Amino acid sequence: MTTKLMGQKVQRVEDQRFLRGHGRYVDDVAVDPGQHTVLHAAVLRSPHAHARILDIDVSDVLDVEGVHAVYTYDDLASCSPQMAEPLPLLIPHPALTHGRTQYALAKDEVNYVGEAIAFVVADDRYLAEDAVSRIRVDYEFLTPVVGIDAARAATSLVHEDVPGNVGARMEQNVGDAPAAIAKAPHRLELDLTVERSACMPMEGRGTVARWDADINRLQLWTSTQSSTGVRAAVAVKMGLDLGQVDVITPDVGGGFGVKINHPWPEELLVPMAARALGRTVKFTEDRREHFISSAHERGQVQHIEVGFDDDGRLLGLDVEFWHDHGAYTPYGLIVPIITSTQLLGPYKPQNYRVVFESLYTNTVIVTPYRGAGRPQGCYAMERTMDAIAQYLGKDRAEVRAVNFIQPDEFPFDQGMIFQDGRELEYDSGDYPAMLEKIKDLVGWDEFPAFQQEMAEQGRQVGIGLACYVEGTGVGPYEGAHVHIETSGKVKVATGLTTQGQGHATVFAQLVADELGVKFEDVEVVTGDTRRMAYAVGTFASRAAVMSGSAIHLAAKRAKEKVLKIAAEALEADEKDLEIVDGVVSVKGSPGTSIDLGTVSVLSNPLRYAFDEKSKAATQFSIGDPGKPPVAEDDEPGLEGKDFYSPERATFASGMHAVIVETDPDTAEITILKYAVVHDCGHLINPMIVEGQIHGGVAQGIGGALYERMAYDESGQLLNASFMDFLMPYVTEVPDGIDIDHLETPSPLNPLGIKGAGEAGVIPSAAVFAAAIEDAERLSSTGLAITAMPISPSELFTLRQAAVEEVAQQPSRNPRTREDPA
């Protein structure tokens, strides 16, 4: 029998093409129906965070040689009435009482620096950029609202018709948290802050469109995480039938969430111009545009009240937080809803109340960024656990352990509603076992001795631990098509897109296992609506669970057809057949066999007219007159198609631990050891899972120690370049990340798998805050880490403030306190 590939470290098949420079991205697409060159587009973006548009003068551009078109909002309706309407609110929610989305080109008002105002198409990008600079806009300046504090104060409004800048307020309750906290033996309050950050894929957004007037059909290439979503939006906005639009997603140089939003204004403006001009039009954003006009995330302010007993067991948890969602809400409330529900992690607080307000600010919109609200939730919960342990003088791991959901309590219903509108019910896990693994991996029990040894050398080291649960594999569905060619090769298509996750490898492993074919004979295509018209997209760690399950089911259907046809050809019972390396044979009789290519030939209506000698079908032979060419329960071709739709999400989990050193003089933060234990159910390819974890940890380090979006009070982004926006280099990421796996299979899908894409990044802010605080505990002052990310300069400032606070405290002479006289 062929060795099963599920669970094997199969080398990625994608890598050689990329390493040799043979990747093909949107900016590499160059197509035109004639001999014309491709036209290029540029966008005039608002330099102001908040202003009314009084007039737009494009007269200086119209006669510039090489400029083909200039569009403002007033030109959109000429394409179709829908183009002049606001962009879609992708995920409505009852709590989103004041949802707002922008227009493809600004109408009357701009609400953040970078908002699109005009669109120019020219012979090349240089000319288009020069033309954009000739457009004159008259503004009436309005007071910008920047940051959560300003939004809550509401002395100015982002949108005149949104009271208090509150787009949404949502509350969920399990039990009576305030009452439980009031009665608890111990109580604590925490105030925490997480600042804004953003996805920074190597490839920014880009779109190319070609309109074929002869057949009234649009072809669109775009760097997206949802090709089918873009297709639907473009069709509606341009007044086209869905069948008139093909969306092809070539190689995507990173997504991390920013490319799940759709459509971006340019994904509408480019095809609009292509149809109007009869030419192929291309837009590729530059890096500054990505900073100021794509999407950000993370920004939250949190207030936590917790009641607990002498063992640190949670009795009541009350969380209120404020979420900065920027100027518009195209992606609804997904991020704060995830924060509010995933905050619970592997714990059972008994009584839980959470309420959030999602606030408008005059800054870039918010859409999910790898982790999508979970890093903020984990930060809140794990900092609370650390505070409880410190208050009680207990080991931090011990306090977590007494609050764990136990293995025999699964499935465990947290009593809340998750992001997908389904119950927040965990499917499987073993958190106590995971805790023991992470403690062994990082050397938790041995660390106090190491910490003391380093202290004797004048070095400050600290250790942090953070636990999380991640909802993965959210619906509503994904589909797959598996086609066995007459060559015996297998072509697999699924509608989700790929941004480096290794789909061509892991999906081929699944198909090779199910069909019994060679791994190298399986080819996987993603993100092409011509091959798979209906899909949802790649986000929320859902690709393996959703498309993997759909591919498995589709391959299973194809296999059933293979065995049926082969059984007829070999005059054998289907139960007696096996497929090994692409050959169907009778078990125990390998000489009685037929290869998959021949079975594919037999699968068309001419299979009853098969010429044994030439191994081919002939039109002129006569089949069995006693049966129809195609049975009622059959169809031509050797293929399988299926969709997978889960009843609810699967819940992966993990624990991270880090040992850091903080320099006593410079406050520089150095990572000495990083360890991860992760549970994503059955592993398809451990090497790819570990790669995902490595990438996530690197991104998490960036979010914890370096990356932030720095706005001034006027709404100008001060660090909109890679010279100013700090990211970790390979020198800042540990050479070795210790990883161990725990496999608790999910009962919700046929493969028993859970997602892994965001595992590396979720607990980073929490685990670094804990480790840095532990290291600083050795100093004479000690300090609390309540705001992330944290840089050496900020740590240095915190130290100075702590020293000043100690110096200002009155004398602690016991006799003076007892007897002032």
CATH fold group of the largest domain: Aldehyde Oxidoreductase, domain 4
Range of helix content: 25-40%
Q: In CATH, what is the homologous superfamily of the largest domain?
A: Aldehyde oxidase/xanthine dehydrogenase, molybdopterin binding domain
Quickly count the helices. 21
Low-confidence stretches: 812-821
First and last CA, distance:
92 Å
Domain Aldehyde oxidase/xanthine dehydrogenase a/b hammerhead: 20-143
InterPro entries: Ald_Oxase/Xan_DH_a/b, Ald_Oxase/Xan_DH_a/b_sf, Ald_Oxase/xanthine_DH-like, AldOxase/xan_DH_MoCoBD1, AldOxase/xan_DH_MoCoBD2, AldOxase/xan_DH_Mopterin-bd_sf
Protein name: Carbon-monoxide dehydrogenase large subunit
Keywords: Molybdenum, Oxidoreductase
